[in-house]
Every structure is written in structure tokens, then in C-alpha cells.
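Teaching assistant here, posting this on the class forum so everyone can see the example we discussed in section. The complex has two components, and the goal was to see what a joint structure prediction looks like when all of them are supplied at once.
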Amino acid sequence: MKNKLLAGPYLLWMVVFTLIPLGIVVYYAFTDSMTGSFTLSNLAKIGIYLPIFFRSIGLAAIACMICLVIGYPVAYCIASVGETWRRFLSMLVMLPMCMSFLLRTLAWVALLEDTGILNHALSLLGIGPLPLVRNNGAVILGMVYNYLPYMITPLYTVILKIDPKLEEAAQDLGCSGAQVFRRVTLPLSIPGIVSGITMVFVPAVSTFYISQKLGGTGTVLIGDVIESQFKTAYNPNLGAALSLILMVMVLICVGVMNHFSSDDIGEEMMPL
Amino acid sequence: MAKELIRLQNVSMQFDGETVLDNISLTINDHEFLTLLGPSGCGKTTTLRIIGGFQTPTSGDVFFDGARINDVPPYRRKINTVFQKYALFPHLDVYDNIAFGLRVSKLPEPEVDRRVMEMLEIVSLRGFQNRKVTSLSGGQQQRVAIARALVNQPKVLLLDEPLGALDMRLRKDMQNELKRIQQALEITFIYVTHDQEEALAMSDTVVVMDKGCIQQIGSPVSIYNEPENAFVADFIGESNILDGIMRKDYEVEFFGHRYQCLDKGFAKNEPVDVVIRPEDIDIVPPGGGYLSATVTNVIFKGTFYDTFVDVGDFKWLIQTTDFHEIGDVIGISLDPDAIHVMKKSQYSEQFGDYSSYSAEYDEMEEDPEGEADEE
């Protein structure tokens, strides 16, 4: 009973700042912007925005995969070094997050733009200017750079918990180093991979700032559209409807992934 | 029968400048059940890990079937291990755990199936193949671990305190089971334990270790009856260890009495340690030239009484089926074969007086817990 009371403030917070706003979003999504009466027309407009949805999901998915490919070896390395190094390395991973998200993204613009630092350096070599910014690649770069720590942290936590005896057991049963990884370490890190992907994918799919700064006209993401509905187009009802659809899509993606992991291992391996 | 399979030659192991194994040499024969026995931190697990290939000795050589294998990685050794806490793969079910090694070596699936099923039969786990390993009891997990190792038909099976986590009853059952499997499959077992009873009951050869050194190698009977020093005498079973003087061959003196014994080859008047097992002491009426003693404590142990007696300021333990009251004065009679004489060693004076018996007993009861995390 006492424990439940302790969760009280947070529950109150959740209700006031999450559940009620969510209700408002749902309400707006199903009402007309002019008359305020019930309508499905906001949701029906999804057809127009479908390509943007797909682009958002596609770019976020690519960013996720790149984060995983870069992040896994880093996480593995952090988990296998000694205590002192581990603290130092995980601090390094977290360090960029101490700086403002906006500032970090703007810094990339300064680095990549046609008159930016990189192109300036290249011009000294007689190359360029290369179109490094205002394209999909730059948006993906921005996502990877900003969200990589969210991939590394859960991965490293899970890898650290894998009993080294299991890897020894695999060796004992005939596995070379690569086989130990494929047959034991990798399958046992799936919970970390799933939560890493979730933590990168969800913010990446709904970002608008990264695409505004690093993207061009061809890289408008669904986050940008939603933002503009509230700030410039003054159609909060359409904005709410698009948010709702995005949320459902994200929930489906996350649900599918969690299903994959819990099938094989799930919570039953956790007591380990 | 006595064909050499594994040989450790002058093997030493250091961790961070600390010597864990100090120049040990050991030969293990084919089909042998050999037990490394010793207290926590004696180096027995390290020895096992060196044989398994998980550690490379700082100096010295390891031979397998005559070939030096110091640098052969674990996955290329014909040795499998049953790990202390089983180390079963939590992401695989019972069947896949057992099939693991066979699949790594790319055996055809029908062959895998045949051997896994056969193994499940041997360890009495038929019908469990699709269970999650995490849902099994300790004893069942133990069997899976054994099956997972044995299914690869290794020449040698290493077992690192495999029964340490099981309760008493299950331990006894598994001891018999392991011995049966070892004899049926004719595999060399190298078994690590701190439990002397387990070691005596199961082994062909017992290697008693302490402080990184081998203290004695021998059959269970010879280790029990002819311990080489006070450490072995104390570690294996109960012992009264007294200071004595070897007056001449077959005659030793302690507490001012001279006794006939079966030992010889000592210098005249050499100070020695004398071991007398508590069950070898005969209680007789006092007087008549016998050593006389006063009963100070009696503990009923079911099949016998632990009877503590004072002889001068030395406290003896006698195990007897006859009850004697506290305060009784009794005589102690010793047959020549109840007396075993040992050379003095670094362990002299450290063991064998039962004045602190109760404390020692607690330690022995608790030890298995502390032991589990050794090294």
C-alpha cells in the first residue's frame, strides 16, 4: 500500500500531462476545424500524407539500423573492458547529450553546408563544394548522431549482464570466437537490441527539427507536417489526426518488435 | 587400464603476482575418476580450468594423449565441462541446449536427434526436451548440463563442483548417478569438490590440494588411512593429531606413554605428528596403565556419540556407540593399527585439537555456501 502511495505524484503527472492531452488530441482528430462537429475527414486525409509517412518511417528505420551497426560493437567493447574504462567510455557516449539538441544539430549545418567547414577544407584540395546538406543523407546523419547514445546504453546494459560462463560453455562445446557470438552472445542481446531500436526509432520517426535544419524540400518528414499544422497552417485538427496515426503506427512497430523478442527469450531470461 | 591421458608437468599459475598454483605435477589416466579436493582457494578450480583450456598456465606444460596442448583453445579440445552453476543457455530449451555442441560440429540433424534423445534417456529427462531450462529445478538443470557435455562423447569430462547447489538428498542421488554414468560410458572424469565425503565415495583417485600445492595423491582408502600430513588428516574426516616422538621403528611415544604402531623409517627420537581417528579409539575402564581421560561433552549423532574428552590439556574426539556421561573418567586404549605417524610439516600444530571443536563445526557446515563462488 505504501509503495502505491509513493507512485502517486507520478500517476497524477501522467494523468494531467499525458492522458488528458492524449484525450484532447483524439478529440481534435475527430472534430471539424470549422464547426467542431464529429468528422472522419481529418483522418481520411492520410492518403495525401502517406508518402511522407513512409519517408519518415524509412529514414528512421535506416538511421536505426546504422545506429545498431555502429552501436553494437561500441556497446560490446564497453561491456567487456574493466570497470574504470567502462565508466570513462559510457561517459563519452553520454557526453554529447549534455549539450543542447538544437545546438548539436545546428553545428552539423555549420560543418556540412556549402560554405561550411568541411566544404571549405575540401576546396583547399580543389574539390567541391559537395552537396553535403539538405538531403536524406544529412537527415539520417543527424538522426544517427543525435540518437546513437539511446542505442548504445540499453545494448551495453544487456550485454554486461550476459554471464561470461555462457560464452565459456559455448567455447567448451566447440564454438570458435565468431560462433560464440552468433550462437550465444547475439541471441542473448536481443532484448537490448529491441529496446535500443525502440528508443532510436520512436524519436527519429517523429523528429522535425533535424529534417528542417539538415533536410531539403524533398525531405519533409511527418513531424514537420504536424508542426506546421499547429504553427503556420492553423489546422490543429489535421495535426492531431496525423499525430494519432503516427502514434498508432509507432505502437504497431514497437509491438511487432517486442513480440519477436518475447517469443524467443522475453522476461524468462531476465532473472539471469 | 592405466594408460596416461592427461599430464600436468610443473604447472604454475599466477594472477596479478599472486601464486595460485605452485609447481604442480599430476598424471590422469584414461577412464579414471579423479577428484581434486581442497578448501576454497586451494587452486583446484584453476587446475580444472587449465585442463579445460580456459586458462593458460604461467609456466609448465599440459599434455593430452602425449601432445602438448598449452595453446590449444577450449573448442579444439576433446574435453567438455559441467560448469559450477551449469551455465545453461537461457535462450534455448532443454533439447537445443543438449544439441548445441552437436550442431556446432555440423552433425546431420537425424544423428543429432538420435543422440540427444539417447542422452535424455541416460540422464532420466525424457519428456523434458521442450521445457525452458529456466523452468527446471536445480537437479534437472544439473542433468541437462551433464547431458549437454556428455552428448559430445568427450574423452574427458570436467566437473566443477557440480553438486554444490543441490540439497543433501539430491546430492547423494546424483553422486550415484554420476558414478554410474562414468562407468557405463567409460569416460575420464575430473571432478572438483570441497566435500571430502563426496570425494571418498566417488573417486578412483583423490588429489588433495591446499595453497596451490598438491598435498597428497592416492586412492580414497590410502588418503584416509595414511594421510601424509596434518592438513590431509584434518581435511579428510575427523582426526586427533598429537605431538609424538618416534622412539624407534614401530614405537611412538605421546602423553608419556609408549605405543606400538605400524610405522617405521623415522630417525631415532624424531618429533612426529600422530593421527588417531575418532572411531579407532577403544574406551576401557580407567586405570590399568591406560591413558585416562575425562568426558567433557557428548553430542548424539544418530549412529554414534561424539564424545569429547580431556587428556591433560588436550581435547580428544572419540566416536563411540556407547554413551558416557559428562564428568566420567575413562581409559583410552589404542591398537597399533589405530595409530598413524606422519612427518612434521608446515601444518603441524594447526590442526587436530578439538578444544575449539564447536567453532570448527560451524565453519564446516557453512563452508559449502562460501565455496560456491570460489575463484
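For the discussion questions: The CA atoms of residues 89 and 97 of chain B lie 6 Å apart. The radius of gyration of chain B is 24 Å. Think about how each of these relates to the inputs above.
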